[in-house]
Design a protein that fits this description.
Length: about 475
Amino acid sequence: MLVKVNRAAASALLTLLLIMGLAPASKAQLGITRPKGQELLDGIVVKVDNQIVLRSDVELIYAQEVARAAGKPLPPDLKCKILQSLVLNKLMLAKAETDSVVVEDKTVNNEVDRRMAYFVQQIGSEKRLEEQYNKPIKALKDDLRPQIKDQLTQQKMQETITGKVAVTPREVAQYFSRVPKDSLPYFSTEVEVGQIVIPAQVNDKAKQAAMAKLNDIRAQVLAGADFATLAKQYSEDPGSAKEGGYLGFFKRGELVPEYEAASMKLEPGQLSPVVQSQFGFHLIQFIERKGNTYSTRHILLKPETGAADASASAKQLVRLRRQILTDSISFAKAAKDNSSDKQSSTNGGLLANRQDGGSRLPLDKLDPAIFFVIDTMKVGHITPPMPYRTDDGKDAMRILYLKSNTPPHQANLEQDYQKIAAAALNEKRNKALDEWFAKNRGSVYLEVAPEYAQCKVLESTDNR
């Protein structure tokens, strides 16, 4: 929700931004339809130009707030506030359409895949997810895609409104001074942790085995076997295997270069030779061209990595660790030049706090795999190489570095400037949004269902 911050709410906002961790995405946040048998009675409660707010949109968020409150009383106008926030988001969508603010399909598809992969991980498997919602993965993605597109469009529209907003050190100090001293949050232990990740290398024997298997499958297809049937049997791409390897239509530039280059050489029905990409080895069957898009199906095989492959990565990390400890190279430079984890390598190897973008992480909210390693470490120490599984499921090795350990303390500008600055910036961005809403709320057609007529959704933003 979009929440305006006024003087009286400054302490609450600071506490919210500084203390709350990034919660795992809920089913509602992921945009997944409720399981069969749990549907809400639905209907349109607000129209904002050609955008609509459904009763289920309000009720789902309200149910989340009730669960979060755990029996504590809720504001009597909570549903109105929820509706108001949803309407303001729809206003941004309506204006994005008239202002030609567009999110590319490739960006939407990437985000759909990312969220679906995360949700599969939370549920345990694709099969369990499909059983829970009584739909195949492809159908769940189709349900998710328009909601993700709306969310990304809202974010892009909001960026056009607030992207140039910044705060000065003076504004940060003024913001902090408005927080009552007896309301300042108390922080638990925070740490800065760095990592250098080096993936296990696939040996030539494993590569040759994968290529040989795909060439055998290719021969079966050329002899009359059904490509889709073989894809369901052999492909290691979980997103397309159950669809017979079908990937759908894509524009040029949306698939990895090696895959696209091989596909563009084919005519409908033709098979590619074995193609290697960052994902593994592919056998591609071209289906059709339609305008500036094309469709294919593929069978993906991923060569297995083994202990011998990981040992090469471990040796490289041992060498880097020795250089860092003897001051031949800094940890930050070693991470930048060698780590395969791009998100942390560009930050000197430090893991980022996704809540405020800083590098200090609450000790009690660390991933257990990290917590139980660094909990007994001294500042400046670096672990020996340890096995690691990357977010995309690849085997790797990594070393961890404890850069700092900040003891429990009450929030202050000296130790917590970055977090306080983030809260101050959020307040200033919300003010910019308030001004934009005030300017644009009269430019749209608005219709509210009688059951929500008492909610003054666009009369004022002061009570958001």
